[in-house]
Amino acid sequence: MKYWQFLLFVGLSLQCDKAHAETGLAQSAPVKQHLMGLSAAEASMLLIKLKEAQSSLKTGDFQYFELLAGSVASFEATKISPREAFLAVPFDEVWRIQRVRSDNRLWQPYKLSYAPKGVGQLYWDIEVVLGSSGNIERVLMVYKVPAPS
Asked: Which residues of 12-34 are buried (b: 16+ CB within 10 A; e: fewer)?
């Protein structure tokens, strides 16, 4: 358990360092992250796993999880590979993380939302499934139009 506490501390420290480094950016206020059905610690652990998976893919380490991405046929997002789409997501900027109920005790799904052009615009709806071992089993990304308000 101490290993996870250490990872949480490191993850939160990195997020704080990034926030301080970005104070001069054009965006006036960051979008507040919405957590649904999970704690901040659990959300942080999930984001750490996703960032580690990105890092491993970038360095050429073999990853065993399924990676799928798509969109409406005419959207620009269909012109890039699922790997490129996954590597392009800055998981620190995900604005919604939701723990999804599941009847399968071996898999724990989560839903994340990332809007590259801001909330209310086209966004990535990302489903992440962790297996019983806590490893990423599947990442499914769909670039879609937001629901009408």
From this structure: eeeeeeeeeeeeeeeeeeeeeee
